[in-house]
Structure formats: C-alpha cells, structure tokens
Amino acid sequence: MIKIFMALTVSLNWMFLKSNHPLSLSIILTFQTLSTAMMMSFMNKTFWYSYLLIILMMGSMIMMFIYMTSLISNMKMNMNFIYLMSIFLTPLIYENFYVNSMESQMFIKTSQNLEIYEINKIYMNNKYMILIYMLLLLFLIMMFINKLVNLKMGPIRKINDKL
C-alpha cells in the first residue's frame, strides 16, 4: 500500500512541476497533502502527524485559493497530450526503478517496525508549559494579523456596493 502512495506522490510532484494554472496547482497540492498524510499514517503507528498535516495544509489551501481567485482573471486551463502522457508514465517509471530496489524495501520494513514514541514527548508532564506557550503565541499572532489586515484595503476583491 505504501508503494502505491509513493508512486502517487511522485506522479503528483511531476504534475505540480508542469502545471501553470493556480487552480490546478491548488488541486494537485491538496491531493499531494492527502497522499502524503496517508503514507505517513501507514508508516507510523499514530495518526497525529497526518491529522495535523491535513488540518494545517487544508486551512492554508483554502486561504490561498480565495486569494488567488480574487487576483487572477478567468483563465482557461490547457492540458496537452504530452503532459497527460507524462502523468501516466511517471508511476510506471517509478515502479520499475525505485520500488523494486533493495534500499526501498529495507526502508519500508524498518519504518514499519519502528516504535513511535516521538509524539508522546510533546505531551510529557514537564513539557506542558511549553505547549501552552506555543498555543498562546499562535493565538496572539492570529489576533495581530486579524487586526492588521484592513478589510477595505486588503487583497480580496471588493464587492460592488450600491450607495
């Protein structure tokens, strides 16, 4: 199962490099995040890292999507035949060269056999104050950014108000 997600990740990386439209880039980045999170959840015994990755990336992708749609005009996405063929051939090339090698097999086996204890280090009793300070810092930064952004002068397109 990890091999499938690794091939999907390589294919999505190739698509991301060849794309030039903001909408296609955001869709590819969303699928890349989901495939990376699924691969992380299969490799680790806990799902916390993948949950955090999905929450952070999806929140930022929503903000970037709103920002980009307010700035760009209605561009059409162009997909040529060579681009589509490269999407389908990349996982096959990856399968032949990398997945069957001995190093990748050993990496998958050792990552599946590791005992995950790093996530518990954050929540140890002597580390609670650091965690609370980090959360308060993130909250304060969010509040400052909210106060700094002027909605009338911001980057998001204004709605035509009739006076």
From TrEMBL:
The chain crosses the membrane at residues 21-42, 48-69, 81-99, 130-149. The keyword Mitochondrion applies. It comes from the Eukaryota. Keywords: Membrane, Mitochondrion, Transmembrane, Transmembrane helix. This is NADH dehydrogenase subunit 6. The lineage of its organism: Eukaryota, Metazoa, Ecdysozoa, Arthropoda, Hexapoda.
